Amino acid sequence: MAIHDLTAADRAAFKRELSEAIPHLRAFARGLCGRPDMADDLVQETLLKAWAAQNRFEPGTSFRAWTFVILRNVYLTEMRRNRFRGEYDETQAERILVTSETQEEPIHLADMRRALMALPDERREALLLVGAGGFSYEEAAQICGCPVGTIKSRVGRARAAVAAMLESSDMPRGDGEPAATAHAAIIQEMEDLAAAAALAHS
Amino acid sequence: MATQDFSGSGQPPRRPPSSRPAGSRHGGQAPEWADGLRKLYDSVVDEPLPDAFRDLLDKLDRDA
Q1: Over the range A51-87, which residues count as b (16 or more CB within 10 Å of their CB) and which as e?
Q2: pTM of the model
Q3: A82 to chain B, minimum CA–CA distance in Å?
Q4: How confident is residue B19, by pLDDT bands cut at 50, 70 and 90?
Q5: How far is B16 from chain A (nearest CA, A)?
Q6: ipTM
Q7: In this complex, which of A26, A48, A112 lies closest to B33 when CB atoms are compared?
């Protein structure tokens, strides 16, 4: 059971895989807790636990999924201590937004982030795993330790909630549609008034 | 090797949009924001890694 039972080659391979998983762990952690600094703390704790448990990883299974399970447990432990709840860091979020190169619609990504952080934890987690992390429903179910149907339900509800939040946001989209609609409504009202006035005079 | 599935490009395999569950009443908008969700995630994956992480792994490796 001891780490010492592993060969140097085993340890080197494990270290490489763990190193390659770090960027994904950071992305998942930030999606979970919304704060870059705390997300990185979660990942560091995850690395410690993964390292200590390295002889429990089953070769041939998804290494990334294995580390995500550990991260999730670390996060839930911290949540129970109430250290992360409701501490979404808007300033940090905007900083990331600005440094992202490929985005064409920054305002849209900001909306997306707010909608994501407004979701209940279990739905946000499911949406992150399936909609962003690229996991299958089956893998996400294993990571979360729940039935596949539960994950499907959570993802479906999360998608509907995000879509509803984005639809109801008042962000200007720059396509002129709301202004045109308002203009048409004003014209219609004036015509109605004119018709009423004409009726009153007849 | 097996690790290539998730470690190579930082872009895990995506399922086609048709795998979106039935019953979404907002199908018309989903592809647009779904792409935004992946961008949020990938923007973190693509960030330069702070030294603290590699330092930690090196320390664990030395102490083992």
Answers
A1: beebeebeeeebbbbbbbbbbbebbeebeeeeebeee
A2: 0.69
A3: 24
A4: very low
A5: 11
A6: 0.70
A7: A112
